[in-house]
Write a structure and sequence with these properties.
Layout lengths: L1 E5 L6 H12 L2 E4 H15 L6 H9 L3 E3 L5 E3 L2 E2 L7 H11 L2 H15 L4 E5 L2 H5 L5 E6 L2 H14 L6 H17 L12 E4 L5 H16 L5
Parallel strand pairs: 1-6, 1-7, 2-6, 7-8
Antiparallel strand pairs: 3-4, 4-5
Helix pairs in contact: 1-9, 2-4, 3-5, 7-8
Length: 221
């Protein structure tokens, strides 16, 4: 079974997906880590990030492994920490917005789905990567709540930024994500909409779990 969770930035997709996968005994597919690992390899190889064919070739040859304990390996090297560096973060869009590179990663994601039950989260998991997923969710939250969550993350990382600035960044991110040339953020008609504005993480997980278990039991999603 494949369960997808799409939605805008800071809606809580990663946290919810990890917990849902754990509750179900499914594999959690951290697509963001895959894009980061591919970006790290491209930077490490000195690839021309503005040359689509070169970039796609690097991504196609990247051996990216997502371990059950949360570690991320690329070509056998543990890159769990280094893929969170500012350099990788600042260049990840080059891989994410490149059609050929993105298709190379999508093929890897679909290959994983052929052997495991998955909970996959991202910007286009239910809309493009796994259009035939058995259960699809679209996780949303108000701008104020999303900005508050992101602000907490940044302050925990000792970054001094205002709530107004975080809100501005999220609005810009939403606009970019909905207008990206490939893998744009969009809600399809078969996605179950969940507004987490007034819900705890555990409440969101329980709502999703109920839907998935109902589907597993043979009922409607």
């Amino acid at each position: 079974m494949i369960v997808t969770i799409d939605g805008p930035a800071a809606a809580g997709k990663s946290t919810v997906a990890r917990r849902l996968a754990r509750r179900l005994g499914f594999r959690y597919l951290d697509t963001g880590a895959m894009y980061r690992a591919a970006t790290w390899k491209a930077l490490r190889c000195g690839a021309d990030l503005e040359a689509p064919e070169t970039l796609a070739e690097v991504v196609r040859n990247a051996d990216i492994q997502l371990k059950a304990d949360g570690r991320v390996l690329c070509d056998g090297q543990d890159v769990t920490q280094v893929i969170r560096s500012p350099e990788v973060t600042g260049n990840i869009y080059r891989v994410a917005d490149d059609a050929a590179a993105r298709q190379a990663l999508i093929r890897q994601q679909r290959k994983l789905a052929a052997t495991d039950n998955l909970v996959a989260e991202g910007r286009d998991q239910g809309s493009e990567v796994f259009p035939d997923a058995e259960v699809k969710f679209y996780l949303h939250a108000s701008l104020k709540v999303r900005a508050g969550r992101r602000l907490d993350e940044l302050r925990n990382a000792d970054k001094d930024v205002s709530l107004a600035e975080v809100q501005r960044q999220i609005v810009l991110r939403d606009r970019r994500d909905r207008s990206r040339p490939v893998g744009s953020l969009r809600r399809t008609g078969d996605m179950i909409f969940i507004d987490s504005t007034d819900l705890s993480v555990e409440q969101v997980v329980q709502v999703m779990l109920d839907h998935v278990e109902d589907r597993l039991a043979g009922g409607p999603s």
